[in-house]
Design brief:
single chain; 513 residues; Alkaline Phosphatase, subunit A; 8-stranded mixed β-sheet; 4-stranded antiparallel β-sheet
């Protein structure tokens, strides 16, 4: 018998391009995401409200834009009172059981000083292995805090989160750490890329899948469930374990057509953000930023190696999504559960000669996968209207029959999910970039319609405008083209009409990532 209010299961990856699914890219094998899309509705023009992790994740939780909830860049923590008023805490106060498993990143892990949060590397003594929340409105949490370990940095002591504590005990004499950093194949110098010797059973994606299935198996059905399952991959470093690192042959990987830098075609900040030195006084933090966020030019062979590993990480996530969907079937929960799959932002992956992420709001970074399946959701439907992961909180409130605790800047997707027509004109993305990130401070506002995208840098008045219908590769910046003056004015008016208030005083960064 179907319960009155559906369970809500949000599954996210980290840094997954929208074109990295089987239904958009025949080079990839994601059978379980493909199945989810066939059995539900997918959004082909879903945007992220920010191009890096912390602000985007805070927006998913709260339904607020970054300059409203205050997390305007990585290194700025989400205030607990705001986080607790997000969808998890609100639904919990209305009878739902709320849980989070995996990478949260609502707070900074690489902090300048102890901040007291369970994600802060300098505050771990406060949180023993028996601590499981509450945190940001989630009653039960099992965190993968570090998520992305770099070979040149030792693992923090004590280990940071539930996964890290478990990971360090695998094998003997810290065998897991040694295997994770070892490569099973010769390396050709691809940045942050190797074929990890770590057994797949000890990998973050497997652990997140295991813990999610265990939690679902013990869920008491007297209360509906609101659960966020968050995979840390395919975020760099690209350290896919076997056998998934053998799924894609680098020699067969198709590379971006425009994979050479073309900074002369771009507004000033593209070049400045790549070539300026991050403004950090601490040499260790400066090294952390340089190693983690910047990639030197790659040869085609190196980019192909990186891409093949990135694809393998996505297929491993897909495998574990399939395990979770199978658990819903086995437990008799599938018909009563709204399942949403998405991510926080994309990855440049060599397009325009760029890698990872930064203040370059191409579709590679801004457009993300979003799929929904469940009660009342139309099957095998594609929606091409501009929507946003910002819309998820409002959608969850609608599904649960709960009123939002405050005015939201996202809009419920309920009508679109039901197959009904609804006008959607624009999606917003915004980012105040701190000089500690890339050496320059920026005030970026982006608006995306069905046909165009425009980014305004408010400090300098510069910008970039792309006609996505006629120039999907975003090669020709039409911002200063007199022939586009009318559409630029229309997009600027949309930008100025951004819903909600912008905080007059933004919090100071307390760390880097």
């Amino acid at each position: 018998m179907s319960q009155q209010r559906p369970n809500i299961l949000l599954i996210t990856s980290d840094q997954q391009r929208a074109d990295c699914t089987g239904f958009e890219n025949p080079d990839l094998r994601t059978p379980h995401l493909d199945r989810l899309a066939r059995e539900g509705t997918r959004f082909s023009a879903c945007m992220t409200p920010n191009l890096v992790c912390q602000p985007s994740r805070a927006s998913i939780l709260t339904g607020l834009l970054p300059l409203t909830h205050g997390v305007w860049d990585n290194g700025v923590d989400l205030e607990p009172r705001i986080g607790e008023s997000g969808f998890a805490g609100t639904l919990a106060r209305h009878g739902y059981r709320s849980a989070f498993i995996g990478k949260a990143h609502f707070a900074t892990k690489a902090t300048f000083a102890p901040t007291g949060t369970p994600e802060c590397s300098k505050s771990q003594a406060r949180y023993g292995p028996d601590w499981h929340g509450p945190y940001m409105g989630f009653e039960h949490v099992e965190l993968c805090v570090l998520g992305h370990m770099h070979r040149t940095r030792p693992l923090d002591r004590p280990p940071m989160g539930h996964y890290e504590r478990w990971f360090i005990t695998r094998g003997s004499n810290e065998e897991a750490v040694q295997l994770w950093a070892a490569s099973t194949r010769p390396e050709i110098g691809a940045a942050q890329t190797w074929h990890s010797a770590l057994p797949v059973a000890w990998h973050t994606s497997t652990w997140v899948g295991d813990r999610a299935i265990d939690f679902l198996s013990h869920h008491e059905r007297a209360r509906p469930l609101a659960m966020w399952v968050s995979f840390p991959d395919p975020h760099h470093p690209f350290d896919c374990p076997g056998p998934w690192n053998l799924m894609y042959d680098p020699k067969s990987v198709r590379l971006p057509r425009h994979r050479r830098p073309d900074l002369e075609r771009r507004p000033w900040w593209h070049k400045a953000s790549i070539e300026s030195t991050p403004q950090l006084k601490d040499p260790a933090m400066l090294k952390f930023r340089a190693e983690g966020s910047r990639v030197p030019p790659q040869t085609d062979a190196q980019l192909a190696e990186m891409t093949a590993n990135y694809y393998g990480m996505i297929s491993l996530i897909d495998h574990n999504v399939g395990r979770i969907l199978g658990a819903l079937d086995d437990l008799g929960l599938a018909d009563d559960t709204l399942v949403v799959y998405s991510t926080d932002h994309g990855d440049m992956l060599g397009n325009h000669g760029l890698y990872l992420k930064g203040p370059t709001p191409y579709e590679d970074l801004m457009r993300v996968t979003m799929i929904a399946r469940g009660p009342g959701v139309a099957r095998n439907r594609v929606v091409d209207a501009p929507v946003s992961t910002l819309d998820l909180a409002a959608t969850f409130y609608d599904a649960a029959g709960v009123s939002p605790p405050h005015a939201l800047q996202g809009r419920s997707l309920a009508r679109l999910l039901a197959g009904e027509p609804e006008s959607r004109d624009v999606a917003y993305s915004e980012w105040h970039v701190h000089p500690s990130r890339c050496g320059v401070g920026l005030q970026l506002r982006t608006v995306r319609t069905r046909t165009h995208k425009c980014t305004f840098e408010l400090g300098s008045g510069a910008g970039e405008l792309y006609d996505l219908r006629n120039d999907p590769g975003e090669m020709d910046n039409r911002f200063d083209d007199p022939g586009c003056a009318t559409v630029r004015k229309e997009l600027e008016d949309l930008m100025r009409a951004r819903p909600g208030e912008i905080r007059k005083v933004l919090p100071e960064p307390i760390g880097m990532a």
